[in-house]
Design goal:
Shape: rod-shaped
Largest sheet: 4 strands, antiparallel
Distance between the termini: 95 Å
Number of helices: 7
């Protein structure tokens, strides 16, 4: 496995002015020697003139958050990360690698969750290259490698968790977003480490049941919400009835026997738990009618 070796290249500005000066001097001298029919000097300075011009090909620019991978006839010679105009051996090939932070959103993948329900899932992955040598030489196309491996990690993640939790403290894709995002980032990083890429962040951007079961699952969720709401209503109604009986008894507003208490409890529960507003009925007789 090839690891990155940072190397320093010569500053390009001194090399530029030096090479231009040498080329200008050699060209001027070669022309004068040619006019004087001094072929030896003319050929000698002409040769150095073309050498200086060829050396200008060693100049290259490194932008901020960018690196240049240097190779000499296929052999890795190091990576230049210092921004600015630099100069190196003109025979070196200089491949540009971006070290900026990048992100992409995967396609909407259709996969079965841990319960076997078909779902649609997509994720946003934020990443950057941290080892330019591995990115260049360990994989054929590191950008495509990141995309393919990230989608594979999303598929694998979806099969390990249910879409929704059916038990308390159960991790699910919908209810445990932070935990699932951390797990997704770890799995993506494990897959991308060999390509010299660091996964900075990974989060689910789209999560839904597949269209063929979406209606049935919606009814299931609605039923669960109705049951939970009814439980809260019953708990509140029982508390209110208990409070009413205690207040009536403590303040001695009216004395109720067990039958009257049972009737009162029944009426209050019907009023408090009913879906529609109760219609009052006035008793114009005695309390015992």
């Amino acid at each position: 496995m090839i690891r990155e070796q940072e190397t320093s290249a010569i500053s390009g500005w001194p090399a530029l002015w030096l090479l231009l000066g040498v080329a200008g001097f050699c060209g001027y001298t070669a022309l004068h020697a040619l006019k004087a029919e001094d072929w030896i000097f003319s050929l000698g300075f002409g040769f150095f003139f073309f050498v200086a011009i060829a050396c200008l090909g060693g100049l290259f620019v490194v932008n901020p958050n960018q690196a240049r991978v240097l190779q000499l006839f296929g052999a890795y010679r190091g990576t230049v990360r210092v921004a600015g105009l630099r100069w190196a051996n003109p025979f070196l090939t200089k491949r540009t690698i971006s070290t900026r932070v990048r992100n992409f959103e995967s396609a909407k993948l259709k996969v079965n969750d841990n319960d076997g329900n078909p779902i649609e899932i997509a994720a946003v992955v934020v990443w950057k290259v941290v080892d330019t040598a591995e990115a260049c030489f360990e994989v054929d196309d590191y950008d495509n490698y990141v995309r393919v491996q990230s989608e594979a990690a999303v598929r694998n993640l979806a099969t390990r968790y249910p879409y929704d939790s059916h038990e308390e403290h159960q991790v699910s894709l919908r209810g445990s977003t932070a935990s699932v995002a951390g797990d997704l980032k770890t799995e993506i990083q494990d897959r991308l480490a060999k390509a010299g890429v660091q996964a900075i962040e990974a989060r689910i951007s789209h999560l839904a049941y597949a269209p063929e079961i979406a209606a049935a699952m919606l009814q299931r969720q609605q039923a669960g919400a109705i049951i939970a709401a009814r439980q809260k209503i019953v708990e509140g109604a029982v508390g209110m009835v208990e409070m009413a009986l205690e207040r009536l008894s403590s303040q001695k507003i009216v004395e109720l026997d067990e039958d009257r208490k049972a009737a009162m409890v029944s009426n209050l529960l019907v009023v408090l738990c009913g879906e529609r507003a109760a219609q009052p009925v006035l008793n114009t007789g005695t309390i015992h009618q």
